[in-house]
Write a structure and sequence with these properties.
The chain is built from six helices and 26 strands. The protein is mainly beta and about 375 residues long. The protein is globular. The two termini are about 30 Å apart.
Length: about 375
């Protein structure tokens, strides 16, 4: 390998998995410093992994009211199609955390009430602790909420910086201020939270988590008319995406889920007897129906005598979709063959309560 040109070595390394590259850091200091630890190389290696066609999932144990539990596995990863999943040891092993709805460059963001948040790379196990934001320090002590807002986690595509964000309806969390909403963003360079001013002029729907896609975080708005609100993480400004043709009321919103498939903003909507997935074209500013699922031919969608809204996680090849039953504490990962209409359980998690996210095994870190 030492006789090969540097660019040839990089070309080979880009096609290796992260675990192998981590082993190589102990083999050669030159490989470690000049290639593997280089952010541009890490980005290329991650993109190659995305193009490989493999779908990786991280499972995060969620809080269920039981407090600390010595049997809890904080993180577990698996490759869809493989029967083996891998437990990821962590320093917070006996604690429960909620998880932001989107993974970004192989990083995930964990949070819980007024505790410090954690941004972690499940593959390398590198992590960084984030101090509580002002909402966490104050709102949970001022008011007991039936539904609490969830933070978002994404990336400024221009500067390449990662940003955890809390956006919440001011009055609903007990703030007596004039602004309709309050928005806080974490700055990794200063290790501190700051406010985005002005915040969103629209109330948001707290019952659904924000989703990151193409440099922006997205929320459903709350009010007489339902829209999708976007926060550009570079300019830190809000705008409303053109109205989807299928969202008009709160009743319809309950059966709808924002998600990201193939790095495009999507909304999955259940209207009996179908579950339809719409995709947003950011250039044409239009919505297009890309998948339609006949619920009558998918018995896996029916559990405990009622039909459930499964969350789309990923597209597997041309004819399969991966779903997650987010309404059940022990819901499985389910694959659906769009051609044959055959449903199959891709993975049944033994953890009582967990959340599933698609992610890309990467070397990228925010340390």
């Amino acid at each position: 390998m030492e006789l090969l040109p540097h660019d040839v070595v990089e070309y080979i390394f880009e096609r290796l998995d992260v675990k192998t590259l981590l082993k190589f850091t102990a083999v050669s200091k030159q490989w470690k410093s000049s290639i593997i630890q280089c952010r541009s190389f890490q980005t290329r290696q991650m993109l190659h992994r995305k193009q490989s066609g493999k779908t990786d999932v991280v499972l995060v144990s969620l809080y269920d009211g039981a407090g600390s539990n010595p049997n809890i596995e904080a993180l577990r990863t698996l490759v869809v199609g493989s029967t083996v999943s891998v437990k990821i040891p962590t320093t917070w092993e006996n604690k429960f955390y909620q998880v932001c709805n989107s993974s970004c460059d192989g990083l995930i963001c964990l949070y819980y009430r007024y505790n410090p948040s954690i941004v972690v790379n499940p593959t390398t196990r590198c992590h960084r602790t984030i101090p509580p934001c002002n909402y966490q320090l104050g709102a949970f002590h001022r008011i007991r909420q039936l539904v609490s807002p969830s933070p978002g986690f994404g990336k400024d595509k221009i500067c390449g910086t990662y940003k955890p964000v809390w956006l919440y309806n001011s009055a609903e969390v007990g703030l007596k201020i004039k602004s309709i909403t309050t928005c806080e963003v974490f700055d990794f360079t200063t290790n501190a939270w700051r406010y985005i001013v002005p915040a969103s002029p629209y109330l948001i729907y707290h019952s659904q988590d924000p989703v990151y896609c193409d440099g922006s975080l997205h929320w459903f708005t709350k009010g007489d008319e339902t829209n999708i609100l976007a926060l550009d993480l570079h300019t830190e400004t809000f705008q409303v995406i053109p109205r989807p043709p299928f969202l008009h009321s709160l009743l319809r919103l309950i059966e709808s889920i924002i998600c990201s498939l193939h790095d495009r903003l999507c909304v999955s909507e259940r209207i009996w007897p179908e579950q339809v997935i719409w995709s947003f074209d950011s250039e044409e500013k239009t919505w297009k129906k890309i998948y339609s699922i006949d619920l009558k031919t998918t018995p896996s969608w029916r559990r405990n005598n009622r039909w459930r809204t499964f969350t789309p996680l990923s597209v597997l090849g041309k004819d399969k979709l991966l779903f997650y039953d987010g309404e059940s504490s022990d819901g499985p990962l389910v694959t659906l063959d769009l051609r044959t209409k055959y449903c199959d359980i891709a993975y049944k998690c033994k953890v009582k309560a967990y959340k599933a996210l698609c992610y890309v095994p990467s070397l990228i870190s925010i340390l």
